[in-house]
Design a protein that fits this description.
It is built from four helices and five strands. It is α/β, with parallel strands linked by helices. Strands 2-1-3-4-5 form a five-stranded mixed sheet. Helix 4 links the parallel strand 4 and strand 5. It is globular.
């Protein structure tokens, strides 16, 4: 039996990270992967503009007048994964590189997702993050930082 295969958590987080590579955001790329209790992927997403909103017609800026920044227009990876899902999300797990903001946490709770697995909680001391955790705790949604010994997963498109 092969010894160096990846475990489920690393596999699904890898899908989330690969999805993030689709984002055209020049500053932050986040991906999400939703998995059901049978370990089947039921939704993926990344941060970007809504369908029909061309990337060249909307701003990617982080600072400036509100309507001239990306913030009123971009859909976060978690919301896109939920909206792109193909089945009920009840009792599912969402894998995401960055701990969800309060708006995404609302969607996670409403969708029935019961667990969040994340890599980074870099906004841990912000009010948005505190609000997110307060709602998740109240709703009984578990969250945990992915504990992995991996630093990278390499993809090779040259199969022989």
């Amino acid at each position: 039996m092969r010894k160096n295969y990846i475990n489920w958590d690393d596999y699904f987080m890898g899908i989330a990270i690969l999805s993030a590579m689709r984002s055209k955001d020049p500053n932050t790329q986040v991906g999400a992967c939703i998995v059901n209790e049978e370990k089947r992927i039921v939704g993926v997403g990344y941060n970007g503009f809504p369908k029909g909103c061309e990337d060249t017609e909307f701003p990617w800026e982080r600072e400036g007048e509100f309507l001239e920044t990306k913030y009123p227009y971009v859909c976060h990876a978690e919301l896109n994964a939920i909206l792109n899902s193909i089945k009920s999300l009840k009792n599912c797990t969402i894998y995401v590189a960055l701990f969800p903001c309060n708006e995404c946490s609302k969607a996670i709770i409403q969708s029935g997702i019961k667990e969040i697995v994340y890599l980074s909680d870099k906004y841990a001391n912000t009010d948005i993050n505190r609000a997110s955790k307060k709602m998740l705790d109240a709703a009984g949604v578990k969250y945990r930082k992915l504990e992995t010994e991996r630093e990278e997963l390499k993809l090779n498109f040259c199969v022989e």
